[in-house]
Amino acid sequence: MSSSPRPDVVVLVHTDVRSDGRVRKEAATLAAQGRRVVVVGMSLAGPLPPPIEQMDGFTVVRVAPRLLRRALPGKTGRRLRLLASLVLVPVQLRRLKGRVYHAHDFLELLLVNLAGIRRPVVYDSHELYFDQKIGSRFALNDLMQLLRPLEKPLARRAAAVITVSEPIADRLAQTLGIPRPIVLQNAVDLRHAGPPVVFSAGGRKIVAHTGALSLGRHLPELVESLAHLPDEIALVLIGGGPLKAALLEQAARLGVGDRLIIVPPVPVNSVSPTLAQADCAALLFAPDSPNYQLALPNKFFEAVAAGVPLVYGTTQEVGRLAREYDLGVGCDPTAPRSIAEAIQTILRPENLARYRENAVKAREILNWEQEEKKLVALYRRILGDE
């Protein structure tokens, strides 16, 4: 990379980029504006992808030492990669000499500052980083709480802060003492939809869930709701994760194993086209942490882009937008009977037609083509070309 032209934007993210829709959309938008964009990724789990890759008009550089180029199993491999990345990433960031550095979440903001970067930094806060539920990917623990006081001075030093929802923007402005962040929602880019992954539910009505099969999403309750629904309704889980075997075993034990279908993870741009085969989408976060309460997950926008109604839990921002656009029915995500009742309400023919029509109307507003205008304007200001 040393012989390449100086990047306009260096993006730092803790994923390997391929499956990170927000990072890819933002980088592709900036690249489409003629910016030279380099995304520095950290592949912390699974087989390591190529160290350098061209993607969507930008360049991905993945940080991993040569000794860790082969996949290492379990937590040990992940921890070794993380430790190695913490050492190597600052070196890579300094080497790239970007005009602007775009840090996705607190860990990346910290690494950019540890690298001694003196160029403008954009802090892209995907969530309330230190208010995540214990047991999530970046769980609250003593070490992270020791780092919490650093967020305020680092955010204040940033050229701009952006985030994913209105209430999270309000909370960050209040707790960090910064101007209200720009809200850049995780809407789907309808212009670059990929082909659907086709699946069959044997002619049954389909309730679908997209994303990782992991804790915090009330998937066991969703599976149990099948026992309270007629045989003509199936559940399709689109994704993989640690709960897969347990969910299949649970469905078999409840006598609904033939109505639970698991579709392996699909490419980011194919999620909404694949989801469009469903009659209803499930988004069952519960407000058991401030981060979940105020979140506006990808799943919401995937359902809107797919034109399918939502059965949703009791989180604040999802509920507000679902009610504003009349997109579906809320429920208690901890109660399988409540989930089942909401699904049955949605699937009544007169309701289903209305909710589908409303979703189609909503996606004319809630899409990346609208959201990216704010990102383009921000970078024109920072780079001084407006």
Task: Give me the strand/helix succession.
Answer: EHEEEHEHEHHEHEEHEHEHEHHEHEHHH
Strand elements, count: 14
Strand content: 15-25%
Full CATH superfamily name of the largest domain: Glycogen Phosphorylase B
Q: Extract low-pLDDT stretches.
A: 134-140
Overall, the morphology is globular
What value does the Rg take, in angstroms? 21 Å
Total number of distinct structural domains: 2
User: Which range best describes the helical content: under 10%, 10-25%, 25-40%, 40-55%, 55-70% or over 70%?
Assistant: 40-55%
> What is the CA-CA span between the terminal residues?
29 Å
* Major sheet details: 8 strands, mixed
Question: Going across the major beta sheet, what is the strand order?
Answer: 3-4-2-1-5-6-7-8
Helices and strands: which structural class?
Answer: alpha/beta
- Number of alpha- plus pi-helical segments: 15
Any chance you could write out the topology, listing elements then pairs?
Layout: E1 9-13, H1 21-32, E2 37-41, E3 52-55, E4 58-62, H2 74-96, E5 100-104, H3 106-114, E6 121-125, H4 142-147, H5 151-157, E7 160-163, H6 166-176, E8 182-183, E9 205-210, H7 219-225, E10 233-238, H8 244-254, E11 260-263, H9 271-275, E12 280-283, H10 290-294, H11 298-306, E13 310-312, H12 316-325, E14 328-330, H13 336-347, H14 349-362, H15 368-382
Parallel strand pairs: 1-2, 1-5, 2-4, 5-6, 6-7, 7-8, 9-10, 9-12, 10-11, 12-13, 13-14
Antiparallel strand pairs: 3-4
Helix pairs in contact: 1-15, 2-3, 7-8, 7-13
